[in-house]
Amino acid sequence: MKKLTKEPIKLTGERVWRTYIGGREIGKLHGNFQAEDNHFPEEWMYSMTQARNAGREEIEEGLCKLEEFPEISFKALVEKYPEEMLGKSHVERWGNSTGVLIKIIDSLERLTIQVHPNKIKAEKLFHSQFGKTESWHILNTRNDMEEKPCIYLGFKEGIDEKQWKTCFETQNIKEMLSLLNRIEVQPGETYLVNGGVPHAIGRGCMIIEVQEPTDYTIRVEKITPSGFEIADSMCHQGLGFEKMFECFEYQGMTLDEVKAKYCMQVKEMRTEFGIKQQIINYQETPCFQFEKLIINEKCHLKGADVFSCLYVLSGDGVLESPTKKYTLKRNDQFFIPAASDEYMIGASMENPISVLMIRGPKV
What we know:
The protein has 363 residues and is an alpha+beta fold. Helix content is 17%, strand content 30%. The chain contains 9 helices and 23 strands. Strands 4-1-21-18-23-16-15-14 form an 8-stranded antiparallel β-sheet, with no helix packed on it. The longest helix has 10 residues. The two termini are 27 Å apart. The model has no long low-confidence stretch (mean pLDDT 95).
């Protein structure tokens, strides 16, 4: 199996149970045009992370598999060959973890209002080196919603912990939402969501979420918008209802300030293979970085001691390594080991291929 570390590895995504409903559009990505919404609204990709769901502790959810060898988990391969898969410098800094988790999220209903710990709070409260700073790249929005798809991001000005706790204790969801900034979203936009910033994904949003590799989610709604009752442990994640409020940062901002800080401005450059768009870099967060490659010629790449995750957004093309050739299509998922030899992605001017290239935390 060590030879696998020398070239791109095709992975399969894993559908994961959540408290909210969605997933119809993910089914369509896989060619099931009769797919319906259910409690599996997420597909986890490149994942070494176990999902945390009350009542489903004995079910292994969220760990991705190798397409060619489905009996082998991605986690097992990384742990067997950490330096070849992740790079020597990465392993010395972050251990045998990619340090990043990537998901597709497709919401029929609004997700519950929530927050995730930053690195400092994750270390203090969960004894984890990773928090859950995340980002949302808007893939698409549903056109059959009663209202325009939106997100809720960050407190408005003048909010304090006492007011927020009172809303929680009375379960005044309408007021909770009124205390957050509401932003209507468009496909192609990307938002950074730092640990500590309260948020909720609205109805009808389909996103790529790039995040730190934990599932620590503090929820302040005890019942989902569709009426599903959430277990207490799924709200406070074992911290208790008093301590969980330490995860929030009570820094209010205007809507314009939130957009300026958290809506990423794409930096575009022309290359010999097409266009490279830098979406999030390490100056904006040390937790991960990603860019979009729009390829209409041959693009030659290699591991160069840094791993990357390739996700095909659109178009047709080929990926060739010294020993294999893949026909690329939408939603294909490849992991590029740090030790990978050169490989090539090819497409044409008539039908270019768009690929997200995502990397883990800064070393």
